[in-house]
Amino acid sequence: TDGNSEELGFSQAASILYGSEFERQEAAWRGVQDAMQTHQESFAAILNALAGWRLTENKKRSTKREVHFLEPSLHGSRIQAETLNAMMTVTKDSRAIGQKAGLLMA
After folding, report:
1. Residue 67: phi, psi to the nearest 5?
2. C-beta of residue 18 within 8 angstroms of C-beta of residue 10
3. What global pTM score does this model have?
4. How large is the greatest C-alpha to C-alpha distance in the chain, in angstroms?
5. How far is CA 95 from the centre of its chain?
6. Average pLDDT, whole number, for the chain?
7. What distances in angstroms separate CA 85 from CA 55, 71, 90, 95, 99, one per listed residue?
């Protein structure tokens, strides 16, 4: 907003978003959104490649039973699939609140 711009890496922008430099957060958020829009195919390809790699690794490691692709993440987060499903349901049912908050912050 002051006419200054700074080129940052994604992790640097994410640090600003989760940090306490509130005066820089909007610019960082907008920068991330612009970059994701500009490079959406690249972002999608990266995410798909990571997901594919995880699926391949799970198939290699799970010889006794099939492992759901979310199982390692659920285990690492120490939550059950039912807990995640409940959180996703509440989030979906309450999305209007989050959307309103996002509009108020923008």
Report:
1. -105, 125
2. no
3. 0.52
4. 59
5. 16
6. 90
7. 20, 13, 9, 15, 20
pLDDT grade, residue 6 (50/70/90)? confident
Cα distance between residue 8 and residue 35, in whole Å: 11
Spell out the SS3 assignment of the chain. Answer: CCCCCCCCCHHHHHHHHCCCCHHHHHHHHHHHHHHHHHCHHHHHHHHHHHHHHHHHHHHHHCCCCCCCCCHHHHHHHCCCHHHHHHHHHHHHHCHHHHHHHHHHHC
pLDDT at 1 over 60: no
Q: How many residues does the chain have?
A: 106
Going from N- to C-terminal start, the domains of the chain cover: 70-106
Rounded CA-CA distance 98/105 in Å is 10
Instruction: Kindly state the average pLDDT of the residues 89-98.
Output: 94
> Has residue 5 got a pLDDT over 70?
yes
